[in-house]
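Lecture notes, structural biology module. Today: joint structure prediction for complexes of two components.
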Amino acid sequence: MNPELFRILVVDLATGRGRVENIDGRANAVGGSGLAALLFEKYGDPVRPWDDPDQPFILAIGPLTGLFPLMSKTVSSFKSPRNDQYTESHAGGRCALALRFAGYDALVLQGRAAELSCLNIGANHLQLKSAGFMAGLDVVAAGKIMRRMFKENSGHRSMLRIGPAGEKGLAIACINADTYRHFGRLGGGAVLGSKNIKGIVIQGNGTFSLPPDKEYPRLTARVHAMVTDTDMLRKYHNLGTPANLQSLNDISSLPWRNLQQTADPGIKGITGKRFADETLLRNGACAGCPVGCIHIGYIREKFEEKDNRYLYHQVAYDYEPIFAAGSMLGITNAFDVLRILDVMEKVGVDSMSAGVALAWAAEATEKGLISEKETTLRLRFGDTACFIHAARLLGTAANPFYQLLGQGTRAAADHYGGTDFACVLGQEMAGYATGEVFFTAQSLGFRHSHLDTGGYSYDQKHADKDVQAAVDFLLADEASRCLLTSMVSCLFARSVYTEDVLADCLRAAGYGNLADNQATLGDDIRRRRWRLRFASGFRPEAITLPKRFYKIETWKGPIDAGYLDRLKKEYGKRITALTGRTDV
Amino acid sequence: MKILTTPRMDRCIGCHSCSLACARLVHKQFSWETAGIRIQSSGGLSSGFVARHCLACDPPPCAAICPTECLKPRAGGGVTMRRKLCIQCGACISVCPVDAIARDRNGNIYLCIHCGLCVDFCPHDCLEMRKGDEHITEEEL
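The predicted structure, tokenised, for the full assembly:
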């Protein structure tokens, strides 16, 4: 590895051929988020539509990927089918280490394959294989076929694939990464679908020199001990993120039944403890992370009425999917949540987006805006069977209603009515009804993610209504997270990778210049991302919040509409200023 | 002498920390492949993980077939390795009954020397150094 240059594999899907490019720019772009933006600047066009074959789909890793624990995530970037603007989506699994050991800092896909295909890359091979026989296959079946098609390097390869939702071009389609992780949000699945790519196999079959710094092995052992021998990350592998279900319900901040409530006694059926006690089979980990935060539960189904004939599936769970397929739909049984998630996994939709979309549909049904004519079964909060059915129809775009809903809740609400209660903050809300700061943070966040900034956390610690302080926090937090997502670290490790530890790691890995410039790099990269986003059409003032977000109560009391509007205006102004644009 | 055993692989989460540590500390490589212990999923991640590593044959067929005495029998099972004697013939790979010997693109081989350095990097205590005949410990009984 050359620490100065990025080594990029650029594949032309139209021809099935690729080329390795060595690109300068490490000192400013770093990797991950920064590299993805650099590559979109080079290979993409902010203006042409997202499904133009020339638009790139990018996977990027960082300078520390694989070298230190929890440096285990991959950044994808593309123009989103949701809003036709530049965006990122991140995933764990084995993708990051597989790409590292394939010898690349990034993979860039250009063009469109002539027919549905799988791409297979590694340290010494590049192959585009026809896979028309996989058309319509669900994500689980696709994974099984891919394991038979590409047998080499079991354990050291990553398998990304899309389900029917991606093939149908739905804006809520995700990319499944190694069964239990996802490039979930903002429609990456549809981007691969538009390129006729059903799956990507990345084989990490290369071997590389260690960083020459003698301190490197000792430092790796020290960081490993920090994450395994202390309680710093225990919460992530113990109950995991679902521990937050109870705590957010306790402070009236958990969205229930399409955000008609923020707390409900039904929480007792879907707490993190309930999931762990009753459904948890085992933990899993992303390659390169000893924390093991992946929680895998199970469902068991009797498939013959008279005899004892059962099948079982393993279904990963986390806070956000439980919110989306649980509280948001009024489902209060842990196994029922997993049953709905199981279908969402198979059809290849982002569970957060799909859950919120179905919650809107259930309320729209209650209000008489839609009926069985559109949904085929009457959607009712708390009715597991109807949501399993609807999730399947949604992910397969089974009729014009579900086709439209698959383009996002707002698209369906614009057509059928009910925009006031379409719980969309740039995209479908994440599971935090914590208050004004989070609503602002997600609606104007770079990737409309709860992970862009810690707005949900700020809400829980601040009852004051200081607009400047809140926006200052969001801006500072975004820059620091942007630095980590350029390394590319899991954000769960942000307490581990403090500025000092990160500097030590960068120096030991041979990136002393990056260590010295941490203070400005995060800010530089986020400005770069925002410039691309604005160039592709983003305007803060075009984002509107549905009335529902103004009508709720949290632990702080009723939402203060004036405070929320002031926050949104100020944050939008400050984001715009980051780009240096004066024309918006 | 003790050997590396993997008695609790049903706890494995697939983090590859053991392989990365072996490659880093023993074989001086940045890799999850050129290591004495390698983790595979056994039919997709849903089926759990298996560890490929030397099971400490005694006598070891890899040492018997090695034409340069690069690999020599180790007391307690397995082999010792003197890398500078290796001529990259690959004969050892073909006779290993459990496919435990890795090879890089230059033909260099990598195998477990039962040093135990990987053990401390397993977050779930899947690995353990034991005497060769300690298949089941008193504690496990």
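Point to remember: Chain A has a mean pLDDT of 96.
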